[in-house]
């Protein structure tokens, strides 16, 4: 698959999980350095907000917007995922005064499991997944232009529809 970054074409390796498909297993690190997995998402509707680099304007905006919109919806868990280091994610949270679930995909395991790895940049493609309580994909969006923001309202409505 191909996307663009400021109009320049980039390749995305893999294939997005289909709506209705159970997500593949993966292991990541949370802000405390603990290993977290797909299994830990079960039991709650989850919005996975995926971005390339927290230290850029669009990624910052995406993360803050989802936190503002989704963090107060009873029964919905918001998890933000990127290739940023745990230290970078912790620094961002501290600077913004936020306490939220952020997971680091340092080993690219999540990126490859979800078909969102951009090898030219060594980053994850901007995307959003809404998962059912059983880890089935109920909604997915991968932005065709990396610098565009996701459709926040559509993702949140898809999550609310599962409650």
Summary tags:
alpha+beta; 5-stranded mixed beta sheet; 11 strands; globular; two-stranded antiparallel ribbon; 163 residues; 25% helix
Q: Helical content, roughly? A: 10-25%
Radius of gyration: 14 Å
> Mean pLDDT, as a whole number?
96
N-to-C series of helices and strands: EEEEEHEHEHEEEEH
Q: Please report the total strand number as a whole number.
A: 11
Low-pLDDT regions: none
Separate helix tally: 4
For the largest beta-sheet, the strand count, sense and barrel status come to:
5 strands, mixed
Q: Please state how the strands of the largest beta sheet are arranged side by side.
A: 7-6-5-10-11
The general outline is globular
Report on the structure:
By secondary structure, the protein is of the alpha+beta class. It contains four helices and eleven strands; from the N terminus they run E-E-E-E-E-H-E-H-E-H-E-E-E-E-H. It has a five-stranded mixed sheet, with helices on one face. It has a two-stranded antiparallel ribbon with strand order 1-2. It has a two-stranded antiparallel ribbon with strand order 3-4.
Topology:
Blueprint (H helix, E strand, L loop, with lengths): L1 E4 L2 E4 L15 E3 L5 E3 L7 E6 L6 H14 L5 E7 L3 H11 L4 E4 L4 H5 L3 E2 L4 E2 L2 E5 L5 E6 L9 H10 L2
Parallel strand pairs: 5-6, 6-7
Antiparallel strand pairs: 1-2, 3-4, 5-10, 8-9, 10-11
